[in-house]
Amino acid sequence: MFEGGEDRLTPSERIEAVKAAGHDALTEAEAKRFLAAYGIPVVAELTANDAEEAAERADAIGFPVVLKGLGAKLTHKTERGLVRLNLKDRTDVARAAGDIAVAAGRDLEGFLVQPMLAGKREFVAGMIRDERFGPVIMFGLGGVYTEALRDVTFRFAPLDQAESGRMPGELKSSALLGDFRGETAVDRSQIVRVLTGLSRLALEHPEVAEIDINPLLIGPDGRVCAVDALVVLGGSLLPDSAPRDLSFLDTMLAPRSIAIIGARRSRNGGWQNLMRVIAGMGYTGRLYPINPGAAEIEGIRAYPSLRELPEPVDLVIVAVAATMVPAALEECIATGNRNVHIFAAGFKETGEEEGLRLQREIEEIAIRGGLNVMGPNCMGLYNPALRLATWRSAPTRSGDVAFVSQSGGHAGDLAALAERAGVYFSKAISYGNALTLDSTDFLEYLKHDDQTRIICLYLEGIRDGRRLSKQIAEINPRKPVIIMKGGLTESGARAVASHTGSLAGGPHLWETLFRQTGAVRVDSLEEMADVVLAFRNLGKPAGRRVAVIGTGGGIGVWAADAIARAGLELPILGEKTQAEFRAFIPEAGNILRNPIDAGIAFTDLGLLERALRIISADPLVDAIVITIHVDWTFNFDEGRHIDRLAHYLAGPAREHTAGKPYLVSWQRYRTLPGIVAAADRLYETLINGGVPLYEGLPRAASALSRVVVYYEFQRNRSPG
């Protein structure tokens, strides 16, 4: 208990009292009283004004005791020599008080006397208020190892009991929470109490910038106690984004009419000539080139300005030099054209003062005029249903995958990669410098877009991390959200007063977003295309257990390594399954336990059907990977069997796998024309048949693992 019994001040009153005193942090005693008001267990302690009083307090508590220097400016007390442990009598206390007084100097306001608690296990809990994601809750290994080992996990507030309960199990040191060297397993409900209390505190007190509880001591009986605490002021609550009317996106992203300011005649057929690109794509809407020096462009009547158009348009594309963009935006405002794509570059992305100045200028114009702006510095909109693209050779076929990208180049590259895998887009949106519209606005639209089943994101920066996290959590159960994050490097701590602040850098926060929302993380466009292919064509794997069937003894260790690296499991098949394989596959020279070396089955479709039926019936198998060695299979009969194999896997095999998802990996090493042609036919047949096909088992396993983890996340968070 605290000196004087219960704290006489409410948490808000305590904060105001500290601020009135001109302090930017609570003393340790004040901090613990503050935390206790939110149900966080804290150590019983007494305060003292001087050494003599400290000795008296120690007598009252009972030896041994801990003595600490007390003061609003005394953070990081251990490093400053302001903590003395295991003091056994009044003499020890008096001596320790003198040493602490010398070390603290004028910052000393008194002493804090605590019982010397038993316990071998120390953890840390805390909160840091991030400028984009808001309050972030942390839990991890504490004591002197906090920053050295960095074994921590984070969550964004608000934090419920279920999400809090998941955090301890994510630590590498989570074994310490069980029975440990004669000490009882931790009462995890108390850890949940600490973390949810920190979350509630952070939301109710925006003026609190940081909280650090280190150590959070685990006693021999498994009970939790905050032994030390730091509360730093100076925070502010990020305002919740007000609901925004985004109905304009219906016309902006499916425009029936487009005007291009800066359209020009040119022999250049590249991306710079937007008029030629869009007209050449066969855009189905009305196209208005704006150029005061031309009567027609690409066979289409040109107009000197927006004022001369016969109608307001759904979208204006601004393709002029950066210095001319302000005037173009003023013209959009004057003519009532609110939806704008600024194709032009030369703004803040340059990093130069003139570019920054121009960005500020056009932002002011856009906000004043109520413009809805994609860009600047972006490729804008790709909508294949309207045959609309701003780059050449874009696929004209529509699909059910959407891509929102800060980079225009990535949009075109992913479209090309996806097309090769038989995947097509509903829309792709490049938004560049995000003048008025960013990823969260387009996500809100795609959440309700019936044409979109899978959403891909490429992000560099984010304006409102809280909104992004909330949106993904809402969307992801119905539409998988796949994210490639650029710039995942250490950004440095946003504060240095606490351990929490020093550990909560950029990478940790993005990892938190993935962990808390279930968004699927990829690290390259190639990987994104692989994962999209798996999501589009696989069913829902029931778990991580994979059976691999292929040809060649070398499949064994190689396959096991690839599966393990992907976070999947390679179970030994059941005895019944192995016995059934022995009936038609010679055991000598073959592996029948998993992976299955079943070369003979790949020379006879009847045997392969039998093999797949047997594997699918094994209750230990959740998914199947079929590996095809093109060179080996080609040599069997000059490639004719490869074609039969491809058609079987693209069709009848689905009936023989009992609804369990399967995918195919292939490898080819020789470049003989016949082998290359056979591999191409295999690829085309399987892709057109909706079978996920990957060059190499590692890619197949990696894509499968993303799907498995996604559905695992959804099952774990489903009610009941």
Give an overview of the whole structure.
With 720 residues, the chain is of the alpha/beta class. The N terminus is likely disordered. The chain is flat and about 95 Å long. Strands 5, 6, 7, 8, 9 and 10 form a six-stranded antiparallel β-sheet that branches. The protein has a six-stranded mixed β-sheet with strand order 18-20-19-21-22-23, sandwiched between helices. The chain folds into five domains: 73 residues, Dna Ligase, domain 1 (2-Layer Sandwich), CATH 3.30.1490; 113 residues, ATP-grasp fold, B domain (D-amino Acid Aminotransferase, Chain A, domain 1, 2-Layer Sandwich); 100 residues, 3-Layer(aba) Sandwich (Rossmann fold); 159 residues, Rossmann fold, CATH 3.40.50.261; 180 residues, Succinyl-CoA synthetase domains (Rossmann fold), CATH 3.40.50.261. The two termini are 40 Å apart. The chain has 24 helices and 28 strands. Helix 12 links the parallel strand 19 and strand 20.
